[in-house]
Amino acid sequence: MMFYYRPPDLLRRLFPDLVWRMPAEDNAVYLTFDDGPDPEGTPRLLDLLAEHGIKATFFCVGRQVEKFPAIFERIKKEGHGVGNHTYSHLSGWTTSNKKYFEDIERADKIIGSRLFRPPYGRIRPSQIRHLKQKYIIFMWDLMTGDFSPRQTPEKISRRVEKYLRPGSVVVGHDGLI
Fold first, then answer.
1. Catalytically annotated residue among 9, 34, 52, 174
2. How many angstroms separate the CA atoms of 43 and 56, rounded?
């Protein structure tokens, strides 16, 4: 599977309305996690974040929130941010706008956030134009690749060390859809 750990600069220039990085204040980086909540990964991750006093943003899939509402509530109770990652984890490239927007709104009724991240990072310009009226669309500056079974914790750690910079929006996964 081919993916970019850091999106090409051309994409950032073509889509300036999307959030790729955050201000680099105090060398901060922004941890985000997609695809949960998950009954195995999310509680372990929340424990680890609490142990180190770290806050993150979880881009949640609506159907996962319905399945695991207590984990979703724990995310919020512990002071983490939440965002919409659609209800069904749909790709914007292969889904009609009508169906895509309906799926996002269905998730919004459960998640209630103005933050949105498109699954797989796949979103069409027409979808951006529509969604930016209501949502802040978050992409990323650094993809960990933790979803790939070929990746080891050591490889992921080396990649993060190599590409991490102040203001990076880092994507990991607390669930695997």
1. 34
2. 13
In the predicted model, is pLDDT for residue 2 greater than 70?
no
| CATH classification for the domain delimited by 27-173, as one of 3.65.10.10, 3.40.50.150, 3.20.20.370, 3.55.40.10 | 3.20.20.370
- 89: annotated active-site residue: no
Alpha helices in the chain (DSSP H): 9-14, 41-52, 62-67, 69-77, 97-111, 125-131, 153-163
The residue extents of the domains of the chain are 27-173
Q: Rounded to whole angstroms, how far apart are CA atoms 54 and 144?
A: 18
With pLDDT > 90 as the criterion, what percentage of the chain qualifies? 85
Confidence of residue 1 (pLDDT cuts 50, 70, 90): very low
Residue 3 sits at φ, ψ, to 5 deg, of -150, 160
Q: Is residue 26 among the annotated active site residues? A: no
Cα separation of 175 and 40, whole Å? 8
Q: Which residue among 80, 85, 89, 173 is the active-site one?
A: 173
- Which pLDDT band holds residue 26 (cuts at 50, 70, 90)? confident
Give the pLDDT band of residue 177 (cuts 50, 70, 90): low
